[in-house]
Structures are given as structure tokens and as C-alpha cells.
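Re: the request from the purification team.
They wanted to know what the chain is likely to look like in 3D before they choose a buffer screen. I agreed to run a prediction and write the result into the notebook, where they can find it.
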Amino acid sequence: MQKITKNIYVETGFQGCNVGFVITSKGIVMIDTPMLPADAIKWRDQVAKHGIARYLINTEPHQDHFSGNYFYKCPIVAHEGTRNAILTTTSVDQYKESLKQMSPASLPLVRRFTFRPPDITFTERMTIHLGDHTFQLINFPGHTAYQTAVYIPEEKVVFTSDNISHNVPAWLHQALPYEWLETLQKMDELDAKVLVPGHGSVCDKTYLPEMSSIIQSWINVMTKAIKQGMNEEKIQKNIGSLLDTKLAGAGYDEVLLSMNVARLYEVLK
């Protein structure tokens, strides 16, 4: 666990997304939850050492951000689209099956498991005031349509969700690529010194141009292939040779490459 400001702690070592919490004079605000049950319980115990959890914010509609909701009792806040995704596109049985591979020791912890959806939702912006802290929740489309940035101006910190993956491959399987580029520009306008990415190590705004370059590189690769008359099947077969230097050395596996290509072909075609 890393203390990034006087009142904010972040964990980047769990399997799945980065998680964090903010200590206010009136209790704790958590941002996202560990994906694996054993980690979620461990994190719950860590948070409890610093106060009572008053709110939990989910920053996006992917399971690595909200699976741990089940283990927390405080109100959950998220974008309306994230709530809908949790209610309509998640499968408890599939989750339990995946745990058999990822974390067999967690299975006894999920006998009565359900995906817990948010209690409070918003669509564009929302502000939570707790103690002396302000939590500005902003819908910043990119990685998905429902991404939420959590900006805490008193700490000059932004939890960016997966709109930033610091020095790890970017998932574009549900991306809105042009909106993503706009979002990164808007993030740069926030008065923040620290960025907590969805994945990867904590960084600052000097990484924003690099993240923009990654998204633009994906757009360029796919646009060029489409203009050359290549269909999705041909792009999928040749994506390894089509990638530019930046993307070729970024560590994308075959599954992620295939998912990114499928989504970008759909959007850019």
C-alpha cells in the first residue's frame, strides 16, 4: 500500500485494477474494489484501520473494478451506465468459474455471492462533500462510455479509471477512441499533481501525452489498414506486422490484440 498524499492511500499490487481510499474528517471514501475476494477482504481490513467507509465509488463497468463491492456495506456511487452493466451483463456463475483458475482459495468466500450494483448514480457530473474534502465525479468517455474520473481538489489527485494505463497495454475493446483523446485533454486541465491510473504505477500529468500517443497510434494503424481495403479478418491475421513501433513493443497478447482490432474496426469502419 502506497501513501500518495497526507490523506490518500493506493494499492497497485492486486490482480485487477488499482484501488484507493481517501481519509476525510467524517470517514473514508473508497475508489474501486479488488477483483479477488481474498484481496477485497484484505483491503476492507486495511481501510477499517483508518476509519469508517462512508462511500465506495466505482469508476467503470468492468468486473475488475466492482466485483469486490459484495464485501462492503457502505453506499456505492457510479455512472448510471455502470449500474446497468452490472445488472444486465454480469454472470455470477462465470465469475465463480474464473475464480477456480485465478484464486481457488477464494471460492469458500463466494458461496452466496452477488454482484452488488451502485445505490447512487449520475450521468455527467456529481459532487460528494464529506468532511473537508470534495469529490468531483466526472464522466470522461474513452475506455468505455461510462468512465468516471474522481478528482479531489484538496489533494490535487485524480483517480483516472482505465482511461490511463501507465506503462501497461491499453484495452480498447469497448473504446470510444476519439472521445478518449478529448478526455485526456480535459484531464490535463484539472489542477492535479498526481494521477492514479486504472492499471500501472501512480504517475502525473506528464504521462498524458504518452497515453494520447498510444490511443492515436491505434487509430492510425487501424485507419491505414481500412483505407488499404483490408477487412477485419485480414487485419486480425496481420495485426502483428501492422503495428507501429510504439504498439509492437508494448506487450499486447493475442487476445487483447484481437479484441482491440474488433472494436476499432467496428468504430472506424
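For the purification team: The radius of gyration is 19 Å.
Please add any questions underneath this entry.
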